[in-house]
């Protein structure tokens, strides 16, 4: 009986192992890939791809720091990645399994090293800026032709935002991006750890809070595209997606995106493999697939974000590679700042402040 039971247990374990070997689990941001690529990966590899989505770094981080996420590939933003690497949440990549890493762009690798020294744990998926999307007609109707649509004055000056509240304003539910923008607005270092300065940024946000319709990190795409709101402080590619959805719908909504002239945050979304990934071999296969030049171009052409893959650029559509809102000029790049990870004490201040801002109390 014991022998039969042991044999049965071994068979079950073998079957479970085979099942895991035939699937890869990916956890990525919402609205962030051409689904045809997912089908292509399955067709080329025979591996079942289980693809789930999230819409905030905080949601992902909770899973990562708790351990046992169950995912093989996840996509944190750079400053969150940095903290998670320090916590031992990721395994170092085996670049022998990633020949397509030769396609990566040195300019982007140089910048992501501040989060991931030697880029040992991650590869860049997409990068972009955080800025202002507007419904041009509605904003100019309310504020006039000289409305500061390229300035933080539009969203942080209470006199402007109070007027714009009548047509709807959304803001990212992302404290590590919104608070640095408020710091930039008042002339402080967006990467300061000085709690007094951070609280001054909080005062800026609390002053405009009554006029913000909603904090959300994905709903503003359709809200802008449909003309339901007139201003969104959000991610460049999302706002450009809203612009294109409005064009396709031919609904008369004209959307414009600008990185604030005072300075904008440059962010990086990095693909990494959790330390306890069920199938790290398949995870490497997925990363290598994504780093194929044509596959990466297909992803950028779909989501309207810049990517960290230099070899993909000849395959990018002109309205992607030629759009300075997606691939900024060298002059604009010089004015972009990259966020840093907050130490725990400062992070607690940020968390409490954000709770206060969202509640409006």
Q: What Rg is obtained from the alpha carbons, in whole angstroms?
A: 22 Å
Average pLDDT taken over every residue: 93
Q: Let me know the number of strands.
A: 11
Helix percent band: 40-55%
Inertia-based shape: globular
Number of helices: 17
Main sheet characteristics? 8 strands, mixed
Low-confidence stretches: 1-20
Description:
The protein has helices at residues 2-21, 35-45, 57-66, 78-86, 106-112, 136-143, 153-156, 158-164, 175-185, 195-208, 220-225, 236-249, 280-290, 293-303, 318-321, 330-335, 344-359, and strands at 23-29, 48-54, 73-74, 122-135, 169-171, 214-215, 231-235, 255-258, 264-272, 306-307, 336-337. The protein has 361 residues and is of the alpha/beta class. The chain is globular and about 55 Å long. 47% of the residues lie in helices and 16% in strands.
Question: Mind sketching the topology for me?
Answer:
Layout: H1 2-21, E1 23-29, H2 35-45, E2 48-54, H3 57-66, E3 73-74, H4 78-86, H5 106-112, E4 122-135, H6 136-143, H7 153-156, H8 158-164, E5 169-171, H9 175-185, H10 195-208, E6 214-215, H11 220-225, E7 231-235, H12 236-249, E8 255-258, E9 264-272, H13 280-290, H14 293-303, E10 306-307, H15 318-321, H16 330-335, E11 336-337, H17 344-359
Parallel strand pairs: 1-2, 1-3, 5-6, 5-7, 9-11
Antiparallel strand pairs: 4-7, 4-8, 4-9, 4-10
Helix pairs in contact: 9-10, 10-17
